[in-house]
Design a protein that fits this description.
Rossmann fold, 2 domains, 7-stranded parallel beta sheet, UDP-galactose 4-epimerase, domain 1, 327 residues, alpha/beta
Length: 327
């Protein structure tokens, strides 16, 4: 049995879908709440769903059945200000799962984030060098919590402490795709802008406040969630060297390219309304992100990544434009 924390969330539910379709027995540890998040997993065969407070119980009761743990659960809002809440989930719970997987020798893949790189001034390298990692300065509590756990894991490995037989920490870049609808303001720009674009209305983008970037030419490494799942499954099946891996396309594209792809997918002409970046986030705004995927490629992953034109077209055609947009 495979256990996925955060299995009803964005990336987690896409992973649940892929594993379930492959015939795997999958259990989920997550909170579904009172909204429509349950729809993320409603199409798939699931062995068991438990609340996060029951994690210890299922780890004990089904200890001999669990063959792999995917730890996708986290407080993911970059705007969350309750640092104690963030640390309880993103650091202490992650450490607990690491220790369990180490004790019972169960492989572990966990979600980190490109938010660990902060403003990007130190680059976007996934090398497990503790001196380099010390130079990274995340700009929000979410990114800092993920960075704390990454640094703790690397030290565990460096010092030869007990660890899972295989582990991978995945630094996801700007992910978009089906099943992110419950994330409200943390949804991708594609999801938030789709209805306006389809209705031939303007979509809103932040102006640039950086002299080296024109409006809309800020760049991000946008990656389609299908590609993320493909990477996760490949790592799980091939088990290359344990470590931290960037999960991005390796190619930064502009916000204008992203919105042009969206408007093209609905056969409309781009119509952008520019607004100032809010002062509260302006200083920490990322003008450029691009995953260094050298390690992933060197490990043997050769599959191509979708460009924004390809990914957005698939997302709109197969999900957003349909009455049932869920994966």
């Amino acid at each position: 049995m495979i256990l996925i924390t955060g299995g009803s969330g964005f990336i987690g539910s896409n992973l649940v879908g892929a594993l379930s379709e492959n015939g795997e027995r999958v259990s989920i540890c997550d909170t579904l709440g009172t909204g429509k998040k349950w729809l993320n997993v409603s199409k798939h065969e699931i062995d068991e769903i438990v609340a996060p407070e029951s994690l210890n119980e299922i780890l004990t009761r089904r200890r001999d059945e669990i063959s792999f743990v995917y730890h996708m659960g986290a407080v993911t809002a970059t705007s969350e200000t309750d640092v104690d809440l963030i640390l309880a989930s993103n650091l202490r719970l992650s450490q607990q799962i690491w220790h369990w997987c180490s004790q019972y020798q169960v492989p572990l893949v966990y979600a980190s984030s490109a938010a660990t790189y902060g403003d990007g001034r130190q680059g976007f390298s996934d090398i497990e060098d503790r001196d380099y990692m010390e130079t990274l300065r995340p700009t929000n509590p979410y990114g800092w919590s993920k960075h704390l756990f990454d640094r703790w894991v690397v030290r565990q490995a460096d010092e030869g402490r007990r660890q899972p037989p295989f582990w991978a920490g995945l630094k996801f870049f700007n992910v978009y795709g089906p099943n992110e609808y419950h994330k409200e303001d943390m949804r991708s720009a594609v999801t938030k802008a789709y209805r306006d674009a389809a209705a031939n209305q303007p979509v809103t983008l932040f102006r640039s406040h950086h002299p080296e970037y024109k409006d809309g030419e800020q760049k991000r490494d946008f990656i389609y969630v299908k590609d993320c799942v493909d990477v996760i499954l490949w790592l799980s099946e091939q088990t290359p060297a344990s470590g931290i891996y960037n999960v991005g396309t390796g190619r930064a594209q502009t916000w204008l390219e992203l919105m042009s792809a969206l408007y093209a997918s609905v056969d409309r002409t781009p119509n952008i309304r520019w607004v100032d970046t809010p002062p509260a986030i302006r200083d920490g705004y990322q003008y450029f992100t691009e995953a260094d995927i050298t390690k992933l490629r060197s490990a043997g992953y050769t599959e191509p990544f979708a460009s924004v034109d390809e990914g957005v077209s698939d997302y709109v055609r197969n999900f957003l434009s349909r009455k049932d947009p869920y994966r």
